[in-house]
Amino acid sequence: MSQGHPLLKLEPLIWFLFGQGIMIGSILMTGWLLVVGVLAPLGIIPPEALGYERAHMLASNPIGRFILLGILALPLWKGAHHVRHFFIDRGYAAHDATIGGLAYLVATLGSIVSLVAVIRL
Amino acid sequence: MPATKAAHPEAMAPAVNGPTRTAPPMQPSSWKTSPRMKQYSRFGLTGWIYLLASFAAIYIVYGLGSGPEAYAQVQALLANPLVIAFHLLCLISVGFVLVRFFGLFPKAQPARIGPAKPPPQPVLKAMLYGLWAGATLVLSVILAGGIF
């Protein structure tokens, strides 16, 4: 990657978002995955806990939206950064600029869609 | 201020080649299967899982924002055994990432920032695990209907 490449210029921002993704995103995702992804579908918690009325009430208040945005968008940056490094580790360092650019583009678009999803609640 | 310029990669090379030259660096053929590289690759693979987990979460929230009928469809999909298995895999990945990250984080702290010194490594590690457990407990209890 040449000096002055946009990915190098954006490195502080990318690392900031990656850091928040791996720390805050992972911490928030644990409870989300446990309850929304596993316990509720298995019927271990009462169905009304995540029924439409209550889920919408929890998600649409300002604090709920803020936390939800963290759950949706931050892990994208952790994911994109590690996908990029996965390819570097597997021997594709020569294509780092392309792979990294694509990975962060996916994270950027996903973050925009996350923001829209949270705003339209 | 003079303009900076990228250094030439051979800038430090001797003007005349010596009788013996150092061989260019090469990766050993076993590097992809070495235990260290396998561990790096496992950590890298969690990136794919995080991306998929995020897109699944976006889909759920989009369904919630589209009204009761769309949300009912999302809930039916979430009850699919394959989707539950996927979320279990995501949960394992998150645990793997955080255990590894919490192992590295205390070691990566500077000795001091101005007058402030970070707590001892075991204390810092305990704080991180406490934060993880506390946040997970509070979020899980709220989502499961225990509070609010």
Describe the overall structure.
- The complex is a heterodimer of chains A (121) and B (148).
- Chain A has a single domain (16-119), classed as Fumarate reductase/succinate dehydrogenase, transmembrane subunit (3 helical TM bundles of succinate and fumarate reductases), CATH 1.20.1300.
- Chain A is 78% helix and 0% strand.
- Chain A is built from 5 helices and no strands.
- Chain A is elongated, with a radius of gyration of 17 Å.
- In chain A, 44% of the residues are buried.
- With 148 residues, chain B is mostly helical.
- Helix content of chain B is 60%, strand content 0%.
- Chain B has 4 helices and no strands.
- In chain B, helix 1 (35-65) packs antiparallel against helix 2 and helix 1 packs across helix 3.
- The model of chain B has no long low-confidence stretch (mean pLDDT 89).
- At the A-B interface, helix 2, helix 3, helix 4 and helix 5 of A face helix 1, helix 2, helix 3 and helix 4 of B.
Give a short overview.
By secondary structure, chain A is mostly helical. In chain A, 78% of the residues lie in helices and 0% in strands.
Tell me what the CATH architecture of chain A is. Answer: Up-down Bundle
What spatial form of chain B do the alpha-carbon principal axes imply? extended
**Helix/strand structural class of chain A:** mainly alpha
Q: Overall pLDDT of chain A, averaged?
A: 93
Rg of chain B: 25 Å
Strand segment tally of chain B: 0
CATH superfamily of the largest domain in chain B: Fumarate reductase/succinate dehydrogenase, transmembrane subunit
Helix content estimate of chain A: over 70%
What quaternary form is this? heterodimer
Number of helices of chain A: 5
Q: How many DSSP H or I helices of chain B?
A: 4
Distance between the termini of chain B: 61 Å
Computed CA radius of gyration of chain A, to the nearest angstrom: 17 Å
Portion in beta strands of chain A: under 5%
- CATH third-level topology of chain A: 3 helical TM bundles of succinate and fumarate reductases
Q: SSE order of chain A, as H and E?
A: HHHHH
Task: Outline the low-pLDDT stretches of chain A.
Answer: none
